[in-house]
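Subgroup meeting minutes
Present: P.N., E.W., G.H.
Scribe: E.W.

1. P.N. recapped why we're keeping a running log of single-chain structure predictions: easier to compare across weeks, and new members can see raw inputs and outputs side by side.
2. G.H. added today's entry (633 aa).
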Amino acid sequence: MRRVHTGPGAPALARRSIEGVARINPEDIATVRERARIDEVISDQVTLKPAGGGSLKGLCPFHDERSPSFHVTPAKGLYHCFGCQAGGDVFDFVMKTDLVTFSEAVEKLAGRFGVTLRYAEGTAGRTSNQGQRTRLIEANKAAATFYRSQLDSPEAAPARQFLGDRNLAERAADFGVGFAPTGWDNLTKHLRMAGFTDAELITGGLAVKGNRGPYDRFRGRLVWPIKDLSGEVVGFGARRIMPDDEGPKYLNTPETPVYHKSQVLYGVDKARKQIARSQQVVVVEGYTDVMACHIAGVETAVATCGTAFGEDHVKVLRRLLLDQDEHRGEVVFTFDSDEAGRKAALRAFEVDQKFVGRTFVAVTGDGLDPCDLRLRDGDDAVRDLIANRIPLVEFVIRSRIDGFDLDTPEGRTNALRAAAPVVGGIADRILRTEYIRMLAGWTGLEQSVVGETVRAAAGKSAPVARPAPSADERDPALQVEREALKLTLQSPELVHNWWGSVEGQAFTGESYRQVFDTVQAAGGPPAESATGWIGQVLELCPDDEVRSRVRALAVESPRALFGDNHDSVDVRFAENVLSRLLELDASRRLREVKARLQRINPVESEDEYRRLFADVLALEQYRRQLREILVVQ
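Output recorded in log:
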């Protein structure tokens, strides 16, 4: 049995496993890992598409990127981002995205995939041992159930009437809509009886600390549960419905360890699959608008929660849209055509360039939001509203030139000056040229004049910095070393018979040499594909840098080298890569021996000369044999 070092220098994976085993039965952890498919869990946060070789790819949730470099390999249970180097297994992903401990990640996934956990310290200690995030999520879930049950109470009649008047009542249960009683501490008492502490209720934003103890934050209001991408309740939005309520029209959960209003979108849990499928998202302004859109058949609708649409929202939607260089995704904002709507459109335009795909505006000319529009004109009107969208940049430009008298030279000139910075801010050069032509038509000015004004407003753009190619991309030998290690980690049974011939000196890249040494420490590639093989290698990695390299090699798809045209990884493919690796190593050693041979005087060092000459002949023959294998391939 391998001895696990648990001191300060222990590998993170080993330390993490020890921490989990101290509380949760190791067999249960293994069961959770087996049932929690990494692609299914990550798909809650990221839209994944096939990348070849059984791998999937998407936009990384841990850093902002325009092209997908985030890879997931379900067969290995690993993910790795080639942009920011983040990587790991399904537990690592949950820990990083939800900011939880290892035990909390196991508990969350166990609950989702129906695994009962056994605790070494006894089941009685489970509640006290649970992490803060887990407890707050459970409290929110219990609160949502309580609010839903209260919607049928006599006191909730105004809430039911509100929903009925807007033709939303029949679907209220689908959206988890509930009612917060008017009493001061109805929810607080209920959650206390369920085992939650006052501190947890206050920290979670469900209660407010008062002079005589905590009291309910939401009272006498219609309540919508706000869920994250995985469907967990993280907060609430509450609307005033009582005539004597002097509070704000809408009241939301405050910032908590699990609720960050700049990062959540109401309805995204329901819309995420359709967003990925249709490559379109519709951003509306309220909870009832989201409900109305979904009921009308626009199932990609989401809304911000008490804050303006911002960069964090952009990151969430780009990952769902897989917004990349193909410019396929669409983001449709719904605004009124009044002054408030125009200001909202201008705020949205500030983040427009953060999207690679196209942004549009669906304008309600008579001031009706989607909920009111549906109520007046029916479901078809809501669908038509989205279908008749116009580009956001066009809406902003037209908003800028409205109000100027375009029948006068002064009016046309001032309109151009107002709109020029908008056109100049368009990142796509071809699109910018097209809008210069359109602006010339709208203002009645010469296109050359408009173009000159736009360029002056935009200023001189700095050239886009392109990253230098990596050493791996420049050096063919390093490419071979990389492919050999990928095969060793992903298909060890294919390289097992060759491995005895491979020595550390065959890997000229220091990082690859470290991976080779770690593979050797793990006993070398097994003769058969073994479950847990990569985990064994990860446990023995000397530091995080090597561990990151191993994860990257474990998920990256093999690539054809040196004329290899195999569509899949098989024995012939592996022989090609390994023989090329050994041939390169033999060539390097042959050059070294020949150089030494030239420096020796054959008369003064006859024995050494003969030995080196024999080495040259042996290496040349060995290299020819390896090249013959490559030719046969």
